[in-house]
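User: Working on a comparison across species. This one is ABC transporter domain-containing protein from Florenciella parvula. Can you predict its structure so I can line it up against the others?
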Amino acid sequence: WGGVGWVARRHTVHTRFGSTRSIYVNGQDIYSLSAESLRSLFSVVTQDAQLFRDSIRENIGYGKMGSSDEEILHAAKLAELELAAEGTAQADMYLGKDCGEKGAHLSGGQQQRVALARAMLKNGLCYLLDEPTTGLDGVVARQLQDTFDELTKASSTIMITHHLEDLKNADQIIYLDQGKIIEHGNFDELINAKGEFYTQLEARKRES
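Assistant: Here's the predicted structure for ABC transporter domain-containing protein from Florenciella parvula:
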């Protein structure tokens, strides 16, 4: 989804909103699943990274309890975390760094990458991403988007973003304004239509 507040959109997959409607994830009606089973299907990245006071390693590992150090390090590398790609000793020291209360010891970009690494480690059947590249510079954001595109080929992905260029590989884009669907289609279709999506994308290019 692009162009609208994320709360109502994310609410769709977290709540049950009527006995006459159904939402299917991996062929399963969510109404037939327990809350715990439903949550287990999703890898979630919110706009504000949810971190607790512990090491980077533990914050990433929370995505998949019982993960090995090798799995956590691999997820950190996928998320472009600094020093994660260095030698074993340097990477181990970096992953042992304390995040601080609500990630206070990390920059905004580092916080977001830890949250992304956690989601990648879990690698759920469905990714729910709310502005996943917030706080990241353009180069890193593009690298991460490419990584996500590759990683989620076997998963369903719902991305809520104002960064319209991140949607180039989306199967379907729903462009909303004030909660109403303005346009829908894939990236090329919306560009060729030269409607509101195209206008906003061009305006953002001029601003950058």
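For your comparison, note: The longest strand covers residues 180-185.

User: Helpful, thanks.
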